[in-house]
Amino acid sequence: MSYVTRNEKNLKFSQALSTVMGIVIGSGIFFKIASITQLTQSTSMTIFVWLFAGVLSIASGLTVAELATALPVTGGPIKYIEYTYGKPLSFLYGWAQILIYFPASIASLMLVFSQQLTALLGINHQWIIPLAVLCLLSVALINFIGNKASGILQVVSLVIKLIPVALIVIVGLIHDPKVPVDLFPITAGENVPFFVALSGGLLSAMYAYEGWINVGNIAGELKRPSKDLPKAIILGLSLVTVIYVLINFAFLSSLPIEQLAGNPNAAFDSSRVLFGNLGGRLVTIGILVSVYGTINGFVMTGMRLPYTLAQSNQLPFSQHLKKLNRFGVPMISGLLICGISILLLFLGNFDNLTNMLVFVMWTFTTLISIAVLILRKREPELERPYKVLFYPIIPIISILGGGFIVIATFITQFQLSIIGVLVTLTGLPVYYYYHHKNKA
Predict the structure, then answer these.
(1) What is the pLDDT of residues 259-270, one digit of tens each?
(2) Are 94 and 305 in contact (CB under 8 A)?
């Protein structure tokens, strides 16, 4: 455990809780309603997959928390994989984040931002791609002029993102439903196979819960990690799940499922029903600010990953990627992430991009959950300030749920899965080439 580092422990439970909720709540809740309802064709199945995704995220979060408190290392999940499985697999995780996770997240967010903006302004759809590119370029510029500017944007957008969330939840609870929402029995729509509806809906819903795994990065800075981290994960993800279910209930009770299914402007149209035309537009502006801030968060964190790997000369053109501009920002690494994001914008739509990143990231998340079982057997003497509750039941739920997502995606979206696997595996020759080069 030579790379384990213990940082100054000054973070409290409230800060861990806000980190969990701040990382997770993003754009997915507003824009996945279209794809989920299209896949399920059922209000009961739609609500169920949001609950299922929340329970699976909580189980996985509690499982990973054991590693986060036992191995509070700089690098978080990448280091958990390195410690358990070795450097080649951990490099592939970082490689997949550089080529898929961050760019696909940014590209999908760019797309929904421009779609909502064109709907709000009532302009032609031909402006969607140009506006998406302009959106990213503006975020990149803010990040390239220093951490202070991007940090301020992140704080402001975090506060603003909670406004439309709170309004939709409150109004959704008190307004008279215009459409009945059946919660039971849990069934798929007519002519929709149950397995296809469940697996497809779950894959889409998991995107909205993405990000919680990065909470492990702050484990070493918590005053009481063994108590506060699992509590923050349970309470934070539970609150997020409740919020997500209530928002979806509001959407489903405001418009018929036929008008939500496959509608990229479902959030905008539902907001107009809930708040009237002017109120709906104001809520949509709040959603746009939220998405813009989420893009900023992904650019701000994403561009530091190539920079970090380049420090140990593990990437092509490392001599350039590890350079900082005069503001102390890894601008070349940022341009790389933004360039791949723009490329993906032209190659895929919102759902394909998000489904691929969920598939790839949950492959590694499942491996991290399996690592808990491996280390329990391999290193029983390892100090574990927190041990996952109801071991091994919770880890097994996490592993089975993650395995279901990965296998179901392979079955139902084979081509997308193969692309994700092949892109990830391109990192192997890169790793071994630079590994031997650095040893020479």
Answers:
(1) 999 887 888 888
(2) yes
